[in-house]
Design a protein that fits this description.
This is Cytochrome P450. Keywords: Heme, Iron, Membrane, Metal-binding, Oxidoreductase, Transmembrane, Transmembrane helix. The chain is mostly helical and about 500 residues long. It has a single domain, classed as Cytochrome P450 (Cytochrome p450, Orthogonal Bundle), CATH 1.10.630. The structure holds protoporphyrin IX containing FE.
Length: about 500
Amino acid sequence: MLVTHGPIIIGCILLAAVSLFWKILHNSKVPKAALPPFVPLTEYELQHTPLECIARALKQHGPVIQIQRNGHRLFLTSNEFTPRILTDESYFSFESGMAKFFGLTWVNDLHDGTFFHDMDTYARGFVAQQVQKVVPEIWPIFEKGVCGMVENSQPGRPVELQHQVQAIMAEATICIFFGQKYGNPKNVKSVVDLAEDIAELLGIYQNMSFLGRKAPWLWKPLTWVKIILFRIPLHIGFTFTRTLWTDISEISKSPGKKDDSLIGYLVQAYASPDGQLSLRTRMWIMVLILTFLFASLHQTATIMIWVTFYLGMRPDCQDDLREEVSSILRSRGMSCTNPVVDVQTMHDAVRTDSFIREVLRMKGDIVNLVRAPIRDIEIGGYIIPKGSLIFPVTHLSYRSPEFVTDPENFNGERWIGSGKTAAMTGSGYLAFGLGRWACPGRILAVMELKCWIFALLKHSKVELDGCKYEILDPFNITSVPPQGDIMIEMCKG
Ligand code: HEM
């Protein structure tokens, strides 16, 4: 039996050995891509030394890692992948990333899923319509706001910067979006409160809440109930809502009449040729208006505070920027007391522009952009599953010698004559994002920042006490302003 079947048995054993060997050889040549390593960074590490921990983890474990934060599994990637992740729309979705991160996946069930598309199209179109003409309208608001702040400041005592900046930005935003008729203190307060409510709703302050960090599953429903049912209705107020609603109706009734407010712009975009707007469309317009108010006000006000802190640490830069505005005005035959500040003034202020770009580059973002793969994708030898949240570690790009020399050094003049303005995005400058979804409001935002700097330096000298400030949320440097004591002294002459 053994004799007759012996060769067959030996043949089978040989065959099995060869196939096993083949399998091992094959697997070692083409490793099956796995999920990136999970690095268990603690809450303390992420709050106090996030950059060091993340940079070390990327160095130790490879160019893609997973971490856990506030109930989210996040995929962090090294800078070699950043441009692709931000711009390759065939693999990475801005809309899914934003919706998932902010807990807004349900918005895709509204209005045939056009939320992000509409927001982008109309923000882009409206800003393009406004940029040429808006500066002379908002400049007096900035100047009046700064004068009030300077007059109320007391020697040796810090000013309450955040609220004043929010109020100035709210008034400017109201003026741009709705026109002068909406600009009263009650509406300004409503808009400031509303922007704060939406920021809280979107989790921008979640890391600062004990419950938000320890029990995000509980924090979220509680916050949504509190804000949607109580705070937003209370803050937006009956009068403001009714005026908006009435204006939407009035404007739609006279389709031929020129109205260059945001309401007019959206009504024109959505109304049928005879001016009809369904109830659903009116409500959609309200949703977009509230989103624009938040996107415009909250971000820009936060960056105004960053810019003020950087000015407060650099008296020499203040002198240079003050001199720049004076020389622009002199060259146009204007006095500094009552100047006409317009889009050309903004354009000529290249030193101020460079300063803003450098603050935006240096303020310390670690991660400020998110995308989600639309299918499983391999990056750096690892698989990132469809729908995950990918955060390119943008800090590594901002500070890469590939894009700037001496990248760790703040140099407010480095962009003068470089052809790169504060609103111009690039692989090493990601403050406004990159690619198709880069911020559509960035030109307007930079103009507002310039108005703020001009007004601030025209009327005051700024100092950041002890050149010390605290970052409240290192993961959200773009949206949560730093804290420190800003002293203001009236400028003489
Ligand atoms: C300094 C102030 C601002 C900063 C730092 C900022 C930053 C950003 C960033 C980083 C993004 C995401 C881009 C991406 O993922 O690639 C974004 C998107 C967006 N921003 Fe801004 N932004 C600012 C001001 C504004 C203003 C003034 C408006 C409105 C007029 C605005 C409207 C939007 C909108 C609608 C989006 C969604 C993306 C899109 O529609 O394409 N932002 N912004």
